[in-house]
Amino acid sequence: MLFRYGQLILLSLMFLSLLGCSRTPSDDPRLLMSLEQTPNAMGIQTIVLVINDGSTPLDNAKVQIEATMTHAGMPSQIVQMQALGAGKYQASIDFSMLGEWVLIVNVTEANGAVMQRTLPAFNIQ
Amino acid sequence: MQQIPAIDLLKLPGLRWLGRWRYARFALQLPLFALAMLMVWDGLTGAQLAPKNSATVIVWVHYRGFLMLALLVVGNLFCMACPFMLPRNLARRIIKPRFKWPTWLRNKWLAAGLLVLFFFAYERFDLWASPWWTAILIVSYFAAALLIDSSFQGAPFCKYVCPLGQFNMLSSTLSPIEVAVRQPQRCQTCATKDCIVGRDDQPGCELWLFQPKKVGNLDCTMCLDCIHACPHDNIGLLARVPGQELISLQPRSGIGKIEERSDFSLLMLVFTWGALLNAFGMISPVYSFYNWLTTQFAITSETFLLSVVFILALVIEPVVLLGGAAWLFRRISGHNERLIAIINRFMKGFLPIGIAMWTAHYAFHFIIGFWTILPVLRSLLAEAGINFSWMPVTGLSPLVPQAMIYPFQMGMILLGSVLSAVITWQTTTTITKQRQRWAWLPWALVIVAMAGSAMWLLSQPMDMRGILEG
């Protein structure tokens, strides 16, 4: 009986150890990113993303943006952003459904460094 | 004239092994168990963005849609292959349950309450958007099944507790197949009743359904135990007319008469009105309603706001509609039963429209989001060092053209309404001989109101966000 309880405790500990794990890398804090204007209406909208490395605008980077909803079941849109200069990048996204959206930004700097950042979620109403 | 025997799935080539092989259910459970383990691991440790995690994508997009379609096209396949039963079955090889399920819990009250609790938790904790909570939900199911069925004899978890099982069993009343006796006359000479008591190491029905007296799919998990236990090979998966069991007034083995059980009525009510409530939680007007409530009561507590919506949808609305219909029915027909007894008799008639609404809703997500599993799969495979970069991650189209989805949903609602109308009409003609058409009218009006609500809900733009973020 003691052996059975031991097995149960061992299994529980194995499960609990999963709770503390994470396989996803945390966001790189080095680059600062913000949207000039947070999208809030349905339909195709042009978004402008401002990226700074410290106080310096980040130019000459390849920036890809993925727009998706916070719930499962809606296909993502992945778009290459167009550089405008002064650390600004632009893309058009079709916000095709009401609800909570997130933008995931993938940046490849000129020196080859790669980073990913998930911007705070926002509502399309 | 000799009656043509019903088609038996277990006699079809390729499916005979289900009836013959003792470990058939185990073989069906194993892949789902592996999938459940993957989802728990990914849900707890993977990306906490729902579309990027297999737990949320598989559970809330694929599983639910496939479940409803399978229930309507075949039968209760999920309960048949239920992964939650696998550790429980293995544990029972070591631990023999000592206790009997308490008599006062041998009903559907607890299951109905848990179904409400599940719907509430789904909205309150945004389960559809949380891989972590989805994983915890799966683990909780495993733990509850293991704990309850390791302590109590029989299968009390499936019969009296599991909200998912109740959902499946209610939906399977419209399934085209059922576990049934092939030749009833053969059972008349059977003295051993192995289908319920078991034979050698093979258990009989743990949900206490005695095959010769079993009616329909209610409380049947299609576990195949009775099929394997019957020494005469006299039980099969037989084709039938979907919904036929909702017209039957026979007492059901292990259940009795559902028309006289208020606990079953409550379960069916939660299932049916829950279908509308669940869809209401996903459209824009719900946020306007929350905002209005907030201004009226000056309370911003999510739990409070949700409770108000739940009380309106699952208590006040059905009480008014069903109570009103029962009162009018009694006035018109001169029937002298209590209102609650009348509601109990008619409640099963509303199942088809509930099933139709769940199907219309879940099929929408299934069709729209079917291919969204590809990016998740690609990412998981990449983690395992397998490069599937050819697999598309964007530009994923729905399974069928989007323009076909709404007509399909309307078709489902109309079909469900017609079936509900037929069953309530049949109930009316059984109960009363007085002014039958007029007596049926109140029930028909409730069906029209529900169908109208369902169509309105499905026509609204979908809007998925946290309750107070609007």
From TrEMBL, chain A:
InterPro entries the record matches? YtkA-like_dom
Residue span, YtkA-like domain: 40-105
Supply the name of the protein.
YtkA-like domain-containing protein
User: Which species does the entry assign this protein to?
Assistant: Herpetosiphon geysericola
UniProtKB/TrEMBL annotation, chain B:
Bilayer-spanning residue ranges: 21-41, 61-86, 107-125, 131-148, 264-284, 304-329, 350-374, 404-426, 438-458
Cross-referenced PROSITE patterns: 4FE4S_FER_1, 4FE4S_FER_2
Keywords noted in UniProt: Cell membrane, Iron, Iron-sulfur, Membrane, Metal-binding, Transmembrane, Transmembrane helix
* InterPro entries attached to this UniProt entry: 4Fe4S_Fe-S-bd, 4Fe4S_Fe_S_CS, NosR_regulator
Name the domain of life this protein comes from.
Answer: Bacteria
What GO CC terms are in its UniProt record?
plasma membrane
Tell whether Membrane is among the UniProt keywords.
yes
Q: Please state where this protein is localized.
A: Cell membrane
Q: Name one GO molecular function term.
A: iron-sulfur cluster binding
The 4Fe-4S ferredoxin-type domain is annotated at 212-240
Protein name (Swiss-Prot/TrEMBL):
4Fe-4S ferredoxin-type domain-containing protein
Q: From which source organism is this entry? A: Herpetosiphon geysericola
